[in-house]
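for the writeup, i need someone to sanity check this before i put it in the appendix. the sequnce is what the collaborator sent (i think, or maybe the updated version? ugh). structure was predicted straight from it, no edits. if anything looks off just tell me and ill rerun, i have time this weekend
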Amino acid sequence: MLYAHHVLLIGLTGGIGSGKSTVAALLEARGALIVDADAIAREVVEPGSPTLALLVERFGAEILGPDGALNRTALANIAFASSELRKELESITHPAIGEVFFKRLAEAPSDAVVVHDVPLLAESAGALARGYGAIVVVETPKELRLLRLDGRGIPRADAEARMAAQATDEERREIATHVIDNQGDHATLEYLVDGLWNDLLILRDENAALAAQAEELAP
């Protein structure tokens, strides 16, 4: 989808341990503008932020650590105890996240390819409703993902529990326009990302041309 001043928005997702962050870094090196959903979610609840103040007002000071920063585990223990509390949490955080997201889009150059890095894209109807011009799914076999996560110090049982809480490979493929198979070496991944980047540049130019034609025809 083209947003204001013809910015092309691309969704990027993948299960934990798939290598999604590596693909994001490779796309950024080729010229993409990365908008990291997790980074924005952390940014809007930094100490002193209005969003953090609202969270404390609703869920109590026990969600703060000794340094005044948000204790995410404490918040999760409270907010995810029921669907009603989770919805209250989302009603506070989602508007703030959306405001930063659209600000980043507005600040992007008119010819930018903006890649929205969203770990739980397939699980979020709200995110899917943004109308991405393409959705890239990074996919890696489960055992290789578990091996990578073990190397990051995440026990197998914890890693499997996190995987089980996320969408399946099949569910992610259903929303994908492009799938990156990340079970090879780094050189292979670089090659695949080169091909993806070329596709995204073509899509950007095609969409920009259509938008220009529409502007010419507008009364």
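The chain is about 55% helix and 10% strand. The beta strands are 8-14, 33-36, 113-117, 134-139, 178-181.
thx in advance!!
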